């Protein structure tokens, strides 16, 4: 279904690990050496049936703390609606693995599995923990080089969950600010860590990865979606957020109300929904995944069913 | 959503372990002491939104080798269509756990995680490995005692995967033969081990669990879906089977052609489909799960959407 020949790809540094047919398309899992993280990285792509015949737009899905590329692939059920709309879905890993940085495996919410989609500036982390560059530049370039007849190079949206929901917001905002045009046509998030400079998860991550963020936390302000919205918004892409009301991380870590207020103050095109009784799990994500796929497919100009 | 009070249930031997909202309904996971297996047993139920207001029919889903109740709950995506049609889905575990039978943890395809949905007669296994009685009698009785306003007692269908696909076929056939009426209104299977007396998985399981099945294999004939169909068919319920053509277990273990031939020779109401390019995984199952939910919902008389 994809257009890569496994042996050719291996010669170019991309090795296929798995392939599974699902909803008429294929999930394909790859590993490759990364110049952003200086480690091997792994990702999985869902190629919808349409991508066998013509290149299709791409949705990036960034996962949360402790996850790999496989969580959303196994439990997010992206394939049903992505196959209907003709949207590819790219699922990166959440951090480098085995980088060998002292202390990277000590915490579940920092280091391995917790890259936070920033580019580290603290010397200890800066050689490897560069997930922002990996997700926004290196991985798209690799995909478009290896799958030119399956994936469109310039039709891209981004979504994510928790740490990855925040990552999606920041990837979209920062690439617009640095490039002067939006490579992402739309952004959505499930239960994002919406204001990380003000919550323990974000303070721990930014304080570790970012030089000068220990203490006052100034370095993290350029990586905080709520602050970016307050300072730089509105952005020229629509935003969709779903938040479960029974999410045990809602109080104290997620703070959707801060992002909501920032969006309102700037007139941002944003829909922030509260979903009654849902928690932080993939049962919540998979319940509303089709809505998010449709939101992005519409922004990317894909035909409605 | 369900009608059990957790503290009351614990007093009656049923303890709730988890509860997750999904597609407007709830997955609820329980453990209880079992009189069939003389161990604790675990199961998960999907209560669709409709079950909050009136009792609904129940689909049993029997999982395959190495699985627990959680595999189909996490990866089968039963909830989307079950919520639309108003069908509860009950997911039992695949064997007793920690029964203490010597050798039960030595093989991935025999003992723990591999109960094969038979009642063991070999003395070593017969105190614990009685998954047929557990699934067809004890568990339905427990459910209807604890959830009388959420689940209908007499509207029941059954489905399964691989070992559990075969289990579903045999549970439906044998309860019809023993009770003279069909407690299951319909039966379906993903990639069932369709003729176990003729394949290595089945020969190993029956040779271990069934007294007198070591050698000639006569004891297993009463637990083989293809032989039951040949000898006792047709049965008064419709049958749906999906089989992936890229399933690595198709040759040598699954033998859908034997069941197909038996159904044809008896005039059984059966649809046996080959699905091009699909393997044995939950990506295959989740792709066709909505079809199976609809098949059972129709047989159970639920209104179409």
TrEMBL record, chains A, B:
| Keywords, in A-Z order | Cytoplasm, Hydrolase, Serine esterase
| The organism's place on the tree of life at top rank | Eukaryota
Which reaction does this enzyme catalyse, per its entry? Answer: S-formylglutathione + H2O = formate + glutathione + H(+)
- Its Gene Ontology biological processes? formaldehyde catabolic process
The yes or no answer to whether the keyword Cytoplasm is present is yes
Query: Per its UniProt record, what InterPro entries does this chain match?
Result: AB_hydrolase_fold, Esterase-like, S-formylglutathione_hydrol
Look up keyword Cytoplasm and say if it applies. yes
Q: What is one term from the GO cellular component aspect held by the record?
A: cytosol
EC number(s) of the enzyme? 3.1.2.12
Q: What class of enzyme is it?
A: hydrolase
- SUPFAM superfamilies according to UniProt: alpha/beta-Hydrolases
Q: What does this protein do?
A: Serine hydrolase involved in the detoxification of formaldehyde.
Give the UniProt family note. Answer: Belongs to the esterase D family.
What is the official name of this protein in its record?
Answer: S-formylglutathione hydrolase
């Amino acid at each position: 279904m994809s257009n890569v020949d496994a042996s050719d790809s291996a010669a170019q540094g991309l090795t296929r690990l798995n392939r599974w047919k699902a909803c008429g398309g294929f999930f394909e899992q790859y590993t490759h050496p990364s110049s952003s993280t200086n480690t091997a990285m792994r990702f999985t792509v869902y190629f919808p049936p349409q991508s066998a015949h013509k290149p299709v737009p791409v949705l990036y899905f960034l996962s949360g703390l402790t996850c790999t590329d496989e969580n959303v692939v196994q439990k997010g059920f992206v394939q049903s609606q992505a196959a209907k709309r003709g949207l590819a879905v790219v699922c990166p890993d959440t951090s480098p693995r085995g980088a060998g940085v002292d202390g990277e495996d000590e915490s579940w919410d920092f280091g391995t599995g917790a890259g936070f989609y920033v580019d580290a500036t603290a010397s200890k982390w800066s050689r490897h923990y560069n997930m922002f560059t990996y997700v926004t530049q290196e991985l798209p370039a690799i995909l478009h080089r290896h799958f030119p007849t399956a994936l469109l190079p310039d039709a891209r949206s981004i979504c994510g969950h928790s740490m990855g929901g925040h990552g999606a917001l920041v990837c979209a905002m920062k690439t617009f600010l640095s490039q002067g045009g939006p490579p992402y046509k739309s952004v959505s998030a499930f239960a994002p860590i919406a204001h990380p400079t003000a919550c323990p998860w974000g303070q721990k991550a930014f304080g570790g990865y970012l030089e000068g963020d220990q203490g006052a936390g100034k370095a993290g302000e350029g990586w905080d979606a709520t602050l970016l919205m307050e300072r730089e918004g509105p952005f020229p892409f629509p935003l969709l957020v779903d938040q479960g009301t029974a999410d045990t991380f809602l109080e104290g870590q997620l703070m959707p109300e801060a992002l909501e207020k920032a969006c309102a103050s700037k007139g941002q095109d944003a829909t922030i929904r509260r979903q009654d009784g849902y928690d932080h799990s993939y049962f919540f994500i998979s319940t509303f995944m089709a809505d998010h796929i449709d939101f992005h497919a519409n922004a990317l100009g894909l035909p409605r069913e």
